[in-house]
Amino acid sequence: MIGKIRLTGATVFTAGVMLEIADLFDVLSTAYLHFLLMAAGVLLLATTALITGKETSMLCRIGLHKYDRVGWDDELRSAAIYQCERCGNKKRVVKTA
User: Fold this and answer.
1) Most buried by CB count within 10 Å: which residue of 12, 14, 43, 88?
2) What are the two backbone dihedrals, phi and then psi, of residue 71, each rounded to the nearest 5 degrees?
3) CA–CA distance from 59 to each of 38, 52, 53, 80, 85 (Å)?
4) Where along the chain do its domains lie?
5) What's the 3-state SS for the chain?
6) Are 86 and 57 in contact (CB under 8 A)?
7) Where are the transmembrane segments (predicted)?
8) Is the pLDDT of residue 83 over 70?
């Protein structure tokens, strides 16, 4: 069910972007319909992200983590380990010069 809502939100947002592009090139005049479709699509996507997220912070549920470097990886010398201050999510980032 959540997957269908997410797909619907992405489709509605994409339709809004396509109508915006068509309006920019004077192919089709859609007043403010494209803005409404994009807003509805983002709202659906944000709602499903908030519902399905297991993190405790609302910002982390929609993907806005606050990472802090906690150390370096043992396997790769150029890989740093970052951990989110709010939810504890960890990621490994390889730094290149």
Assistant:
1) 12
2) 165, -170
3) 21, 13, 10, 23, 12
4) 2-52, 64-97
5) CHHHHHHHHHHHHHHHHHHHHHHHCCCCCCCCHHHHHHHHHHHHHHHHHHHHCCCCCHHHHCCCCCEEEEEECCCCCCEEEEEECCCCCEEEEECCC
6) yes
7) 7-25, 31-51
8) yes
pTM (two decimals): 0.54
Contact indicator for 67, 83 with CB cutoff of 8 Å: yes
Structure tokens at 18: 């396509």
Q: Are 9 and 45 in contact (CB under 8 A)?
A: yes
Q: Which of 36, 65, 63 has the alpha carbon at shortest distance from 48?
A: 63
Condensed to tens digits (0 to 9), the pLDDT of residues 20-39 reads: 888 888 877 778 888 999 99
